[in-house]
């Protein structure tokens, strides 16, 4: 009797293979809740001053560069300082032109015989917006102003200077003169007569 062939099953005696473990998420995020990765789009270069008007609007056009604050202030700061300085000068000049000192000297000039002989009638400021040079400091007892006046016959520059002796003293006129356009200087203050501005009470503005 023939003997059956022997079949050796080697795989039956080989050790079992151990598969590597995979790290699985405990709470995996559902596919429909995952955020898609952002897509980057290239921007179009911003327009230049010589590019002309823009006929279309696009959301992917880059913005032009903003000017630096230093350049902006460097251009506007000098204009701002100039405007403030000019406004301050105009305000101070307006206060001096409407002060009691200037009003009293202008009235005394109209009634002075020497001034009326050279300037004529209707003596007033030489300009519609007079510029008063000098200082009107009644609080500290110093008044020294000069301004241009005119009449029907001529024009000239009047100067008035007065000081106060002591805190409770009265103002004493030191100079009151009129310089004509020709250069001639006329002394309007009578050294032998009384002070014409003593009754003006310049100290009331203190």
What's this, in brief?
By secondary structure, this protein is α+β, with helices and mostly antiparallel strands. It has helices spanning 10-13, 69-97, 100-111, 113-119, and strands at residues 124-125, 133-137, 142-150, 155-164, 171-180, 185-187.
Report the total helices: 4
Number of strands: 6
Overall 3D geometry? elongated
* Structure classification: alpha+beta
Explain what the structure shows.
The protein is an alpha+beta fold. Helices cover 25% and strands 19% of the residues. The protein is built from four helices and six strands; from the N terminus they run H-H-H-H-E-E-E-E-E-E. It has helices at 10-13, 69-97, 100-111, 113-119, and strands at residues 124-125, 133-137, 142-150, 155-164, 171-180, 185-187. Strands 1, 2, 3, 4, 5 and 6 form a six-stranded antiparallel beta sheet that branches. Strand 2 and strand 3 form a beta hairpin. It starts with 9 loop residues before the first helix and ends in a 19-residue tail after the last strand. 13% of the residues are buried.
